[in-house]
Design goal:
The chain has 292 residues and is mainly alpha-helical. The protein has one domain (14-289). It has helices at residues 13-16, 19-34, 41-57, 62-86, 94-97, 120-140, 143-146, 152-158, 163-192, 204-210, 212-235, 253-275, 285-289, and strands at residues 102-107, 115-119. Strand 1 and strand 2 form a beta hairpin. Helix 4 (62-86) packs antiparallel against helix 6.
């Protein structure tokens, strides 16, 4: 049986929403920030506040999501943020084209004589990029912890996806926790046999070789599990005809409110950027004055 994330039934506004509403709202926020390419923090911050409010309304315990948050923060701050500070790439060309005070130089491949200037515009761009990424991540993180895993496939099917896509998304959401469970069981089994996990020494090749008692069983178990799922789907004649779905989903007034809010955010971002020319990248004077 495939295990799932630490989903628990919570009597919250977020969990009472239709799963389609949550997915559509997430896509609306992503499209609102990316399609018209909004880089104005005056627009991003209100959307970030809405996302943060919805996250707290989900009432997820920190112990359940601390590992996920650790990965997100490392990725967003140390990878996306540092890339923005050093190169200014991933955003509009004005990040590197506009005249901006140089704070200092960072030696990158200094033996070739390359010195990367860290400017105020790059620093402001990195801050924008971090908040944009966190705005989208904050909405995505609660989904596996507050959405019933039994309706993943149903949600995508009711949104118009094909049976193949719906089942693929359903299995994809279940694969990672299943893989984590198998890895934990394997680690405990090897420790019970006296295999010291904390004392792996030597070079990279030696460490990889000594990890084989963990990697090989987990990969084999994942392969066997995949074969079992394929056999089960073949026995049920999956793919030969259109499937039926037991669960039904219906929109409530709260769903229409959230769908309207998501549509309003997306349309507003498009109108501000394409209609009034608001939302492009610029460095506010107060931020420049902090370093001048």
């Amino acid at each position: 049986m495939l295990v799932t994330w630490k989903y628990r039934l919570r009597d919250t506004f977020i969990q009472r929403l239709d799963p389609r509403t949550r997915l559509i709202f997430l896509f609306s926020i992503i499209f609102a920030l990316t399609i018209p390419e909004i880089w104005d923090l005056r627009i991003i911050l209100p959307i970030f506040a809405i996302s943060l409010t919805l996250y707290f309304m989900a009432r997820i315990e920190w112990k359940d999501v601390k590992r996920g948050w650790a990965f997100i923060l490392v990725f967003v701050i140390f990878i996306v943020g540092i890339n923005g500070v050093l190169s200014g790439r991933g955003g509009p060309s004005s990040v590197t084209n506009i005249e901006s005070p140089i704070l200092f130089y960072v030696p990158v491949l200094d033996w070739f004589g390359w010195m990367v200037p860290i400017t105020v515009s790059k620093l402001w761009f990195a801050l924008n990029q971090i908040i944009r990424m966190l705005t989208m991540a904050i909405l995505a993180i609660p989904i596996p912890y507050t959405m019933d895993p039994n309706i993943y496939g149903t949600a995508f099917k009711r949104m118009g996806a094909s049976d193949n896509v719906s089942f693929t998304m359903d299995l994809a959401f279940r694969f990672l926790p299943t893989f984590a469970r198998d890895f934990t069981i394997t680690v405990d089994a090897q420790r019970a046999r006296g295999y010291e996990m904390e004392s792996l020494k030597g070079g990279l090749v030696e460490r990889i070789r000594r990890l084989s008692p963990l990697i090989i069983p987990v990969v084999m178990q994942s392969t066997v599990t995949g074969e079992e799922v394929i056999d089960a789907m073949d026995l049920r004649a999956f793919g030969t005809s259109k499937r039926t779905w037991i669960k039904t989903l219906t929109y409530a007034p709260r769903d229409y409110f959230m769908l309207g809010l998501g549509a309003a955010i997306f349309i507003s971002c498009c109108v501000l950027k394409w209609g009034f020319g608001i939302g492009g990248f610029f460095v506010p004077d107060f931020f420049t004055n902090l370093f001048v």
